[in-house]
Design goal:
It contains 15 helices and 5 strands. The chain has 364 residues and is mainly alpha-helical. It has a 5-stranded parallel beta sheet with strand order 2-1-3-4-5, with helices on both faces. Strand 3, helix 4 and strand 4 form a beta-alpha-beta unit. The longest helix is centred in the middle third of the chain and has 55 residues.
Length: 364
């Protein structure tokens, strides 16, 4: 315990102390007192302007000041120091010959931590100085620990988010490999949905969530028989009923998710098969009652399906696919979302979006 105290005292003795007093004799007395007690890192200023300049460069751990000085008063300096340092704890000890109740009250209201009257007892002054510096050291140490904890939490949160993203990506890939051997469909849906969301002025946070969550739109396909997913001809009513169940299956897989990412994925799964005119499934929602994320993914999914080979037909060109979407605008798809996709296609005629894997500039 004694060794720990000696180390602590050694740290305290290196603390920076600033004296602000226009009386050079008073400054000298306090400096000698501090030097005798082992405090060697001391600076002083005799007026408010010098005090402000030196305070900023010296960055003291404790300030000892008089109230009456030319220029700014001691009370004004206290306010300045508080504005410069809050919420950090920096002790301010007033050492003044003005012992009126008004002076003490003004100093303490401005932010002083204690008030001693000149000439004062050296032992009392040194005890106050030592106690305040120990408090300062504890606060600095606590702040460092808090910052360390914040860094740890930030790092763990980042790792958890990356882990969640990886799980989501693998889930999406699991479903997609069943009717897209390349597994690229889900990636393209995520990127194209994010681009449409950006064009619709959604927030960066929402765009990011849609990019990550959209690939899960058809995760429920894991519960649909292979012979139905790969069927080349039209589906019977019974087969189509089984396909429609992929929405409920997907929701069951993600049920209870607490993260924003999984909640967005649930929203997309539940709404991307709804039609703008209310004829879709599973709930027959229409217009703006359908979440925007679902309306976006519906268009992105249809466009990607049209421009890539499927078991039952060959891929269409970009322009032919857009024409098909326009035919279904107002019935199956939200006109504003289709407009956003058309805007992206027109904008990328000269600049294909090769970095995202989404190519709108040419036919597939």
């Amino acid at each position: 315990m004694q060794i720990i105290k000696q180390v602590a005292d050694a740290i305290i003795s290196r603390s920076k102390i600033m004296i602000i007093d226009e009386n050079a004799s008073n400054v000298l007395i306090v400096e000698r007192m501090l030097d005798w007690a082992g405090f060697a890192n001391v600076e002083s200023a005799g007026d408010s302007l010098k005090a402000i300049s030196r305070f900023k460069s010296f960055k003291p751990d404790l300030v000892i000041l008089d109230l009456h000085m030319p220029g700014l008063s001691g009370v004004d300096l206290i306010r300045f120091i508080r504005e410069e340092t809050e919420p950090e704890f920096l002790p301010i000890l007033v050492f003044s010959a003005d012992d009126t109740i008004e002076a003490k009250a003004a100093a303490l209201r401005a932010g002083a931590n204690d008030f001693l009257t000149k000439p004062g007892e050296s032992q009392e002054i040194l005890l106050r100085v030592s106690n305040f510096l120990h408090m300062r050291q504890l606060c600095v140490g606590l702040g460092d620990k808090n910052r360390t904890l914040e860094d740890i939490v930030r790092e763990r949160t980042f790792d958890l988010e990356k882990s969640n993203e990886e799980v989501v990506e693998r889930l999406a890939r699991t479903a997609e490999y069943r009717d897209d051997a390349s597994g690229e469909h889900t990636k393209r849906i995520g990127e194209l949905s994010a681009l449409i969301a950006q064009a619709l002025k959604m927030s960066d946070f929402e765009v990011g969530l849609i990019r990550l969550a959209a690939p899960l739109h058809d995760i429920g396909k894991v519960g649909v028989p292979d012979h139905i997913l790969a069927k080349e001809g039209g589906l019977t009513p019974s087969e189509f009923a089984q396909v429609k169940m992929h929405v409920n299956i997907g929701l069951a897989i993600l049920a209870g998710g607490e993260t924003a990412l999984l909640k967005m994925a649930e929203t997309i799964i539940a709404s991307h098969r709804e039609h703008f005119d209310g004829t879709g499934y599973p709930n027959g929602l229409s217009g703006k009652d359908i979440p925007l994320a679902g309306r976006i993914v519906a268009v992105a999914d249809a466009f990607d399906a049209l421009t890539n080979n499927r078991p039952y037909r060959m891929a269409l060109s970009r322009d032919a696919a857009l024409a098909q979407l326009w035919k279904c605008t107002g019935t199956q798809f939200d006109p504003k979302v289709v407009e956003a996709l058309n805007f992206l296609a027109a904008r990328t005629v000269e600049t294909p979006l090769q970095d995202t894997g989404v190519v709108l500039a040419t036919g597939a």
